[in-house]
Amino acid sequence: MATQLKNLSDFSATEIPSASPYKFAIAVAEWNAEITGALYEGAYQSLISNGALADNIYSYNVPGSFELTSAADLLLKNNPELDAVICLGCVIQGETKHFDFICDAVANGLSNVAVKYSKPVIFGVLTTNNQQQAVDRAGGKHGNKGDEAAITAIKMAKLAETLKG
Ligand SMILES: Nc1c(NC[C@H](O)[C@H](O)[C@H](O)CO)[nH]c(=O)[nH]c1=O
Ligand SMILES: CC(=O)[C@@H](O)COP(=O)(O)O
């Protein structure tokens, strides 16, 4: 399996640009707060350790992962100076198909918002079968998806800046 015994947050082999020029929003779902809180800490600290200014990081909570799309849209509509929006959530399979609908809606929704505003919108949403898989990816043996999301945001902000000319 792709992630077996792999730390998904190991970026030692890749070059990470400085985050100092960029403004970031972080939208965090409150569902599974112990997990999303760990994702947020990972994302925030990764931005800071790569040079982002604390004053350039704007953080917001939303009720659940489904609302991340609305948050990303509102953030980019009302704050054109943002260079990237990081969306963090944790969707854990329950008894019904609700999981499938949320995951599909968020993945497609965030992608559509990114294209709508030509701005990076980062999918930092865990979609797991159980709680342990989420714990393993929020600072556990498979790293922290929040770290990955932050690094992705920095790289995409740099790319957008480069392509803008
Ligand atoms: N079950 C999970 C949810 N459910 C709530 C939805 O995200 C949404 O807030 C609700 O359907 C109202 O629109 N959200 C998660 O983030 N994680 C879950 O496991
Ligand atoms: C992903 C969800 O909405 C899920 O946690 C809710 O649980 P259930 O499918 O048992 O209603």
Automatic annotation (TrEMBL):
The keyword Transcription regulation is annotated on this UniProt entry: no
Gene Ontology cellular component annotations, sorted alphabetically: cytosol; riboflavin synthase complex
One family name in Pfam for this protein: DMRL_synthase
UniProt keyword annotations, A-Z: Riboflavin biosynthesis, Transferase
Binding site for (2S)-2-hydroxy-3-oxobutyl phosphate: E95, T96, R137
Statement: the UniProt record of this protein carries the keyword Hydrolase: no
Protein name: 6,7-dimethyl-8-ribityllumazine synthase
Matches recorded under SUPFAM superfamilies: Lumazine synthase
Signal sequence extent: none
UniProt pathway: Cofactor biosynthesis; riboflavin biosynthesis; riboflavin from 2-hydroxy-3-oxobutyl phosphate and 5-amino-6-(D-ribitylamino)uracil: step 1/2
